[in-house]
User: What shape does this take?
Amino acid sequence: MTDASKLDWKAIDNDPRFQELHRRKTGFLWGLMVFSLVYYFLLPIGAAYFQDWYKIKVWGPINVGLLFALSEFVIAWAIAFFYAHRANAVFDPMAAEIVRDAEKKLGGRQ
Amino acid sequence: MNTRRMPLVAGALALAAIATPALAQGAVAPNWRWLTFVVFGAIIGLTMFVTYLAAKRVKSVADFYTAGGGVSGLQNGWAIAGDYLSAASFLGIAGLISLYGYDGFMYSVGWLVAYITVLLVIAEPCRNIGKYTLADILAYRNNPRATRIVGALSTITVSTFYLTAQMVGGGVLVKTLIGIDYEISVIVVGILMLGYVLFGGMVATTWVQIIKAILLVTASILLVMFVWLPYGFSLPAFLQAVVGDANVQAQVASLLGDTAKNMTPGELGQRFLEPGLYFKAPIDQISLGMALVFGTAGLPHILMRFFTVPTAQDARKSVLWAMAIIGGFYVLTIFLGMGAAMKVGAAQIKSIDAGGNMAGPLLAQYVGGGADSMLGNLFLAFVAAVAFATIVAVVAGLVLAAASAMAHDLYVGVIREDHVSPEVQVRAARIATIIVGAMAITIGILAKGQNVAHLVALAFAVASSANFPCVLLTLFWKRCNTGGIVAGMIVGTAASILLVLISPNMTYPLVVKAAQEKIVKTQADALVKLDGDLKAAADPAAQDKVKAAIAKAQAAKAAAEAKVTEIGSSRTSIMGLEKPLFELRNPGLVSIPLGFLAVILGSLLYRDKRAEDMWDELYVRQNTGILASKAAAH
Assistant: This one.
């Protein structure tokens, strides 16, 4: 049985490595979040107030509106993969190091 | 009785109930109905077999609520898709596209974008600090008793709204498809769902959702192959055919009314690919979009899925898979909807269901060779069975979420203050499942004939305005505390419900009456004109044509008159209003900021030492997952 009270959470929180993880993650996450929301809400706003642009034909019957709506899917997937890539490559190893040290300390007392 | 045999008994009962009732007319012709039952039977049999296997593995309370945390990222991704693609999104969006073209497609986008919120700020932190329920996350650093009560109540509220919509929608759907009595289909859905959840817990629920998602995606891919193949899998060629199709042009002309008079057929067809045929109020649409993108992350039955995987990395992987499946499915829906608009036609789709829900099933029938062919009816039966499996799978997830709030949060956490043996916890979970299941069946039957479409909107509104602000701020805002959580839950929930009660979603007798009286008047005018036509008609053929038009106008007039009489002297909605006080159909735009404001103000005005002291622990754990993987391992 692991016990949360055995860990010094304050010390981990103050660990420069954790502060670095927090700093990098926060900026990245909220930046992506805001971007994805803005891009999403542009679609219905554009459909309501810039309808003439949506009607411009680009490729046969395919118009700007259809391409924009399809791009929402592509962008959503791209954001997801971008985030996963960053998390796997950067955040996970940073967190794993902190966890390893914490569990080492805990292990000594178990 | 051996409890492991029970799922099989429940399945047999459900099948017997399906096969015997007095049958009314449905989309499936009576002489092909046996085919539907064979397909239904096969799918029910498969899910029951899975439940039988799962029942052996459900021993502890963790097995029951979260499949022991032993679900892989890939499996969970499929299960999330199975949990999320309810009949509303699977039949409803194809229907919207078949009737309104572009706007239907635009509507589907929000359902996928919602998962960005889930991925970035909800899935991994919740996996790292959560256990079984949404309230577990809230109780982590706040007063456990108070936050468990509000968290559990809101979970039960959201799940019940969603559940009612699914039960009623499912009953109507099965009746429309194969003509089984409404009450019987509600009871069958209820019994099957109880069979899965009661005996197989989260293990069976997960597998039922996976099976359903695979069937749904397979059916859609097959249909799209058939629909798209004639155009050489070229998107412009397919859309060119849509634009040039007489059915599509006729539908656009009927939607546009007078403004369509000066448009060429080509322009009418092209209009189907342009916005504005369905959404008339942009603000309302933005409000709906907000409820979707924030509400999904606050749906208890979706949150609960993240407790079934062992680590945050698996939670991340499950959202990626879910986004691939859900997004891919919505892209396929374009072809299903547009294909149905061409091959079946809006007029026929609406003749069976005004909301367009039958577009997908009817397209399946057409693709197989039409209403009289064996293959056509086999396809229809397959799609109908998938629709049925969809309802059961979604309902199972909802019941599990509500039951866990009742048993784990309220009974074990609040009433017994965690002094409960593991055996009693499992028993409490099963008893709560029976209570919620019985409630779902009862509400489903009582709500027969009610318009429940706004209940899904309401579920998303409460999830986005109460659950989402509370979960997000307790995870990411240091100052957040018990006062904020309690205030946020109450204000978010109350604002959502109140705003919907005074919105245009409710029935306003005076408005309905005015609309129906207008129909009576136009039909009366038309009848006068038709009388003149009848006198002027020269040959018998022309006379017959006019007579048919007269009969149609008379029927429409009589139907409208009957509605006017039905309304009688009632003047106000259930809230005592003559007309809506709040003009938005979806309250998100107002209720979400209110929910956030309540959490912030409540936290600032309340002092809670525990919430402050626990912040370091919560924040470190939600970011790193320390102890989380170990906790899941035993």
